[in-house]
Amino acid sequence: MRSPLSPIVLLMLAACAGAPLETRARPMTDAEYLRSRDLMVPVFGVRSRDLRDTYSAPRSGGRAHLALDILAKKGTRVVAADQGYVLRIERNELGGKTIYLTDENRRFVYYYAHLDEWKYGLAEGQRVHRGQLIGSVGTTGNAPPDTPHLHFQVMRMGSGRRYWNGEPVNPIPYLRRTGDER
Ligand SMILES: [Zn+2]
C-alpha cells in the first residue's frame, strides 16, 4: 500500500521521532553512570556529610591519594557500595587485606583496603548487593595502627579488564546513601 504522506513529510516525522530515541541511546557519561548507581557510603553508619574529601591529599613519593579514607572504629562493618561482583580478595603490602568489587556492568571497580577481616565466606566471582557486609574496618597494610579506616577507591575498569589499573575517579559526589547493612 502506498503511503498517503509525501516523502518530505515522512522524513520530517522520522526526524522528530528520532530525536528522543537518539538521546536515550547516547551512552551515559561516567558521571551520569555513577550517579545512577545510587552508591552507598561503604562503612556502616557513616553519612555522606561525614566524609572528608581526601582524594587529592598528597602521599609519599609525590603521588596524590586518589581515594577516600573513611575513618571508623576498628571492627566497624564494611559494606558493598554498589551491587555487582567480587573480582578479587587479596592481601598486599600497602593495602593489607583488600577486596576488589565491580558493578554489575563491570564499568567501575571499587577497591577496599586496610580491612581488619574479610567477611567469612566471601568469594571471588560472588554476586553482592548494595549494603552487603563484606568485611570490617582495620589497620592492615600501611595504615597507621592508631587510625583505623577504610581506604576506598573507585576506578574505571582498566583496559583488558585489568581491574587494578584503571583510572581513578573521586567518588565523593556519588556517595549519597548512608552506610547501612541490608
Ligand atoms: Zn587511603
Give structural notes.
There is one protein chain. It is globular, with a radius of gyration of 21 Å. The protein starts with 6 loop residues before the first helix and ends in a 5-residue tail after the last strand. A hairpin with a 3-residue loop joins strand 6 and strand 7 (96-103). Helix content is 14%, strand content 34%. The chain is of the alpha+beta class. The strands form 3 sheets. Strands 4, 5, 6, 7, 8, 9, 10, 11 and 12 form a 9-stranded antiparallel β-sheet that branches. The chain has a two-stranded parallel ribbon with strand order 1-13. It has 2 helices and 13 strands, in the order ααβββββββββββββ. It has one domain (39-177): Distorted Sandwich (Glucose Permease (Domain IIA)), CATH 2.70.70. The longest helix is centred in the N-terminal third of the chain and has 19 residues, at 7-25. Bound molecules: zinc ion. Zinc ion (ZN) is lined by residues 65, 67, 69, 151.
Distance between the termini: 58 Å
CATH topology: Glucose Permease (Domain IIA)
Q: Roughly what percent helix?
A: 10-25%
The CATH homologous superfamily is termed Glucose Permease (Domain IIA)
Order of helices and strands: HHEEEEEEEEEEEEE
Quick structural overview:
It contains two helices and 13 strands; from the N terminus they run H-H-E-E-E-E-E-E-E-E-E-E-E-E-E.
Keywords:
182 residues; alpha+beta; Glucose Permease (Domain IIA); 9-stranded antiparallel β-sheet; two-stranded parallel sheet; 14% helix; 34% strand; globular; binds zinc ion
